[in-house]
Design goal:
elongated, alpha+beta, Muramoyl-pentapeptide Carboxypeptidase, domain 1, 379 residues, 12 helices, single chain, L,D-transpeptidase catalytic domain-like
Length: 379
């Protein structure tokens, strides 16, 4: 009996222990099902791992702040051009008038940034040590504005009105002689310089005004006088009193044999002279300068002929005035140079033969015909 009792107690104990273990397992499972974060913790680990003290370790989350993203170095955009070829409008007119003030364009504005405007801009830039692009960037614009005055509305839109007369019909004196001599130098006035503002003078002034598209009155206002003075040099006493120019004997250098016959502009690089020779006789000698070999723009040497003439030519390439141009080799010509007159041999041409004696060249221009010979040589 005692042995049977022991067996029954042992079996009962085992049953109780099994029931207790089963109940504990069910309780744990129930608690896990009631915790909504337990599954996420076990499957994704987004809440992080537990540390030794039971707290959760921080987890790096992907940043949504763009400022924390690595940035690339951006190249700054170059400043936009102020004006460039093809542009149209009032600002182009302003550009053109400011260039007129600097004697790079005629007074009349068009409002179109054409080739003539581009060439004038490029010439002006080169003259001021800027990159000659023909495009107006901010640096070019700032410099041009600093050197010129703001145009008026009338100047922008070519509304030209005559100003008060400085000289008019009936006037007499040295100022009239000066006027007539200047007009004669550019072939607008014929006959003797008289010092009397007569009908011939009125006609010459009108022709000059019409050619330059300024109000045609036959009277000399400030605009007419400024334009005439810009194109001419101060007349000599001889020019104002009808004294023929001295033929000149500026050099004793030998003439090239090719200059001995016919009508020839005999241009000597050694003596830096141009001699007008007819049938071997020197009638006029002028000082000249040439293109620079340093800038790769030398004046060509050899035998040529005058191909064409233009009394008030303006360079297409550089926008500069070239009065009394006599072209003999492509774009190379004999012409008056205000820079040569002002700076002498301190400068050079771009290949042309520069003359600094305005009145002397005006006289020569009247003598030379298209087809006459041009000899450029070293004596």
């Amino acid at each position: 009996m005692r042995a049977l009792r022991i067996i029954l107690l042992t079996a009962l104990t085992l049953v109780l222990m099994s029931a207790t273990a089963y109940g504990a397992g069910m309780a744990v499972r129930h608690l896990n099902n009631d915790d909504p974060t337990s599954s996420a913790k076990s499957q994704t680990g987004r809440e992080g791992a537990s540390t030794d003290d039971g707290s959760e370790a921080p987890v790096d989350e992907p940043s949504e702040d763009p400022s924390e993203e690595p940035s690339e170095t951006e190249t700054p955009e170059p400043p936009a051009d102020v004006l460039s070829p093809g542009d149209k409008g009032e600002q182009v007119r302003e550009l053109q008038h400011r260039l007129f003030q600097m004697q790079w364009l005629p007074e009349k504005t068009t409002g179109v940034y054409d080739k003539t405007t581009k060439d004038a801009v490029a010439g002006w830039q080169a003259k001021r040590g800027l990159k000659a692009t023909g495009v107006v960037d901010q640096k070019t614009w700032n410099k041009l504005v600093k050197m010129t005055k703001p145009p008026t509305h009338d100047q922008l839109f070519n509304i030209l009105k005559p100003g008060p007369a400085i000289l008019a019909s009936g006037a007499t004196g040295d100022d009239v002689r000066d006027l007539q001599a200047r007009l004669k130098a550019i072939q607008w006035y014929a006959g003797l310089v008289t010092g009397t503002y007569d009908a011939n003078t009125v006609s010459a002034v009108k022709g000059f005004q019409e050619k330059r598209e300024i109000p045609v009155t036959g009277e000399v206002d400030q605009r007419t006088m400024d334009r005439l003075h810009a194109m001419t040099s101060t007349p000599t006493h001889d020019a104002k009193h009808n004294v023929a120019p001295d033929p000149g004997t500026a050099t004793s250098a030998a003439l090239d044999p090719r200059c001995a016959t016919g009508r020839v502009m005999c241009i000597d690089k050694t003596s830096k002279t141009l001699r007008w020779v007819v049938d071997g006789k020197v009638l006029k000698t002028l000082e000249v300068r040439f293109g620079s070999t340093l800038n790769d723009t030398p004046t060509r040497e050899g035998a040529f002929n005058v191909g064409w003439k233009d009394i008030d030519h303006v360079s297409n390439e550089f926008g500069s005035a070239m009065p009394f141009s006599m072209f003999f080799s492509g774009g190379q010509a004999v012409h008056y140079s205000s820079d040569f007159a002002a700076n002498g041999y301190g400068g050079a041409s771009h290949g042309c033969v520069n003359v600094r004696d305005y009145n002397g060249l005006a006289w020569l221009y009247d003598q030379v015909n298209v087809g006459d010979k041009v000899i450029v040589y070293w004596s």
